[in-house]
Write a structure and sequence with these properties.
about 180 residues; about 25% strand; alpha+beta
C-alpha cells in the first residue's frame, strides 16, 4: 500500500494486471508442457522460457524493490530486476531540468515510461553508453538523454497525481511534461 501522508513519492515493483496475467499464462503453459503427450523438444525449449520466465516475474513482483522514487534528494530510477544494483540510478535535483512522461509504441500497444530531462554535462547514468544512445535517437519519441534516464512503468503503478505533488513539493521549478 502506498504511503500518502508524506510528500515522498515511492512506487515499488509488485503485482499489477499485466504481471499477474503473464505469470498465470506462464504457469498454464508450464503445466501443459509437463503433460505426458508433449514432445521432448517442446519441453526442452518451453520449460526454461515459461517456467523460469514466470518464476522470474513472480520474484520481481514479490521483491517489492523500489521502481521509482521522488524525494528531497532527487529522483531514483529503480534498476532492472535482474541487475538491480548495477542499473539503479539516482539523479539529484541539481541535474534535473524536467520530469517527462512518455510512451513507446511496441507493435499494437504502447508502454508508458517516466524519466527525467537532465542538464547538459550531467554525469552519465549506468548503461548509457554511446552505442545505446545512437539506437535510442532512432527508436524513441523522446531524446536519447531522456530515454536513458527513463524507466518503463511495467510491474508497478504510476500515480501521476502523487508524482506531480512530490515534484512540486521538492522542486517547484522543475516542470512535469506529459507526452502521452
Amino acid at each position: 500500500m502506498a504511503d500518502t501522508t508524506t510528500p515522498v513519492y515511492r512506487a515499488r515493483y509488485g503485482w499489477d494486471r499485466r504481471t499477474t496475467g503473464v505469470v498465470a499464462l506462464s504457469a498454464l503453459f508450464t503445466v501443459v508442457l509437463l503433460l505426458p503427450d508433449m514432445p521432448l523438444l517442446g519441453r526442452i525449449l518451453g520449460l526454461p522460457l515459461f517456467g523460469a520466465g514466470g518464476l522470474f516475474l513472480a520474484y520481481v513482483a514479490m521483491s517489492r524493490k523500489v521502481a521509482f522514487r521522488v524525494d528531497e534528494t532527487g529522483v531514483l530510477l529503480g534498476g532492472n530486476a535482474a541487475r538491480y544494483r548495477a542499473t539503479t540510478a539516482h539523479v539529484p535535483w541539481a541535474d534535473i531540468t524536467g520530469v517527462v512522461l512518455w510512451r513507446q509504441r511496441t507493435g499494437r500497444t504502447t508502454v508508458p515510461y517516466v524519466g527525467v530531462a537532465r542538464r547538459e554535462g550531467a554525469p552519465p547514468l549506468p548503461g548509457s553508453g554511446p552505442a545505446n544512445r545512437a539506437v535510442l535517437e532512432f527508436l524513441t519519441p523522446v531524446s536519447a538523454d531522456v530515454a536513458q534516464a527513463s524507466r518503463a512503468v511495467v510491474g508497478w503503478r504510476l500515480d501521476k497525481d502523487r508524482l506531480l505533488a512530490a515534484v512540486t513539493h521538492f522542486a517547484p521549478d522543475v516542470p512535469v511534461r506529459d507526452h502521452h
